[in-house]
Structure formats: C-alpha cells, structure tokens
Amino acid sequence: MAAILFLLPFYLLLRNGLASRSDITSPQWTFFPSTVHWENFSRLFSLSDVPFARSLLNSAVVATLQTTGLLVVCSLAGYGLARIPYRHSKIVFYAVLATLMIPTSVTFVPSFVVVSSLGWLSDFRGLVIPGLFSAFSVFLFRQYFLDFPRELEEAGRVDGLSRWGVFRRIVVPNSKGFFAAVAVITVIGSWNAFLWPLIIAQSPDSWTVQVALSGLLTAQNPQLNLLFLAAAVSILPIVLLFVFLQRYLVRGVTESGLGGS
Questions:
Q1: Phi and psi at residue 207, in whole multiples of 5°?
Q2: Domain named ABC transmembrane type-1: which ranges (predicted)?
Q3: How confident is the model at residue 37 (pLDDT cuts 50, 70, 90)?
Q4: Is the dihedral of CA 172, 173, 174, 176 positive or negative?
Q5: How many domains does the chain have?
Q6: What span, in angstroms and rounded, lies between the C-alpha atoms of 121 and 130?
Q7: Residue 186 lies in a domain
Q8: How far apart are CA 210 and CA 203, in angstroms?
Q9: Which one, of 139, 16, 126, lies nearest residue 77 by Cα?
Q10: Which of 36, 141, 189, 240 is deepest in the core (most CB within 10 A)?
Q11: CA distance 191 to 59
C-alpha cells in the first residue's frame, strides 16, 4: 500500500504527460489516456520559448561543478576543524554553526549584489560559486573526521607525509562512502534549487531545469501535458540517483553521528 502511494505521483506525471489536453481536463477520469501521445517528447524538446534540453544540460553542469567544489572546500574545512588544533578552533566552529540559523532569504539580496557587480549574471560562475560552501556539510565532515581512526593518520605521518599528504592519500581514500553520501545530498539540493537560479539565470540559455519548468507554468497558454511531461523528465535523474545511491545516505547519517547511539 505504501509503495502504491509512493508511485501515485509518478503515475500521474506520466499519464498526463502522454495525454492530450482534453484527456487531462475531461470530467470523466480514465486510468490511461484515450491515445498515448509519444510525440509530446519531441514537442517538449522543440519548444522555442523554453529551451528544455539546454536547461537539463545546465542543471547537470551546475550540479556537477557545485558538488565537486563543495566536497573539496567543506571536507578541508571539516578536517581542519576536527584535526588541526589552534586556539580559536571552537569559536570558528560555532561561528560556522551560527550561519545555519540565518534564513537563506536574508542573504539573497547581498549575494545578488555581489554576483551582479562581478558580472556573473546568466553565467555558470554566478550559479555555482555562491553554493560552494555549506555550513551543514562542514558540520557533517567535522563529525565524521572526529571519529576517523587516528592510527591511520599517525602511520602516515611516521612515513613522512605532511598533513595535506595524510588527508589526500589516507583520509580521502578511506572515506569514499561518506564523500558519496554528501555528494548525493548536494546533487539533489543543487538540482532542485529554484529561487537562486531564478534571479541569476536571467537569460533563457542559462536557465536550469527548475526555472524552465516555471517558464512552462507561467506561459500565456500553458500546455498542461508538456508541463507534466517536463516534470517527469526533470525528476528522473534524481530518482535514479536516489535509487542507486540511497545506501550512501543512510551510511552518511550513521557515520556522521547524526543517527544517535
């Protein structure tokens, strides 16, 4: 029963996406449309005012770059907070945690002013760079590295590795599962982001998939079947990613200490 409820939205997306507009708005509901319109796929990807194929590519590029950059920046920050002793480490850590209490909407205006002054509007730099740091990801990495076996690091230092060498050659290779967990969370968040791409991607050629969906919704004469089909296509990569990598999400929560004892 739970599986049926879970799959019901996907059924509605596919059913309406492959139907005609009259089938969607008809008062007589049918489980399948009277005629399956496979040509809706070609219509969706040939729209002139909403470059849907380009938006899928843009979302994939942004998600890939943002995830890669965030893993590098936040893992280094988390490792430094967990392993490098200095006087103000706790103050820095609490300051990072304090940023989690600031609503994202509060920082939108100053972030937009900075991005605009740098000339990054409708540019991948404006979409990617502001999202390279995540206080939550830093927190997760710190919690994970606090429980990382010190013996492995000490063995590397004995062999003559620097702190950077220990991190690159010992810590990262033995933390691939946790890195994958954070990567999955980041990809999903980046792919589903809407408000920031909406104000930064002002040119249709720089739209992400969520902005393209809003373009279909706010059109003068919205084509409901194409809107449903576009939604189904847009969530397919995330569904596949979640299905194949969901074990890393559970593992990441467990290893970070958020799952409790």
A1: -60, 145
A2: 56-245
A3: confident
A4: positive
A5: 1
A6: 12
A7: yes
A8: 14
A9: 139
A10: 141
A11: 6
d(CA 182, CA 160): 30
C-beta separation of 209 from 56 below 8 A: yes
Residues 12 and 181: their CA atoms lie apart, in Å, by: 30
Q: What residue type is 131 in one-letter code?
A: G
How is residue 10 written in tokens?
A: 């996907």
Structural domain of 164: 49-256
Whether 125 is covered by a domain: the verdict is: yes
Answer whether residue 13 is part of any domain.
Answer: no
- For the purposes of burial, counting CB atoms within 10 Å of the CB of 113, is it exposed (0-12), middle (13-18) or buried (19 or more)? exposed
What tokens were used for 203?
């040119």
HSE toward the beta carbon, residue 14, CA cutoff 13 A: 8
Read off the pTM.
Answer: 0.87
Average pLDDT over residues 150-167: 90
Nearest to 104 by CA among 139, 133, 65, 142: 133
* Rounded Cα–Cα distance for residues 62 and 235 (Å): 16
Confidence of residue 210 (pLDDT cuts 50, 70, 90): very high
Q: What is the CATH number of the domain that holds 246?
A: 1.10.3720.10
Q: What is the pLDDT averaged over residues 2-19? A: 84
Spell out the residues 6+ positions from residue 84 whose beta carbon is closer than 8 angstroms to its own. Answer: 163
Say if residue 260's pLDDT is above 50. no
State the DSSP code for 220: S
- Residue carrying the six token digits 């890195």: 179
DSSP 8-50: HHHHHHHHHHTS-HHHHH-SS--SS-SS--THHHHHHHT-SSS
Distance CA 1, CA 119 (A): 52
Nearest-10 Cα torsion for 176, 182, 186, 187: 40
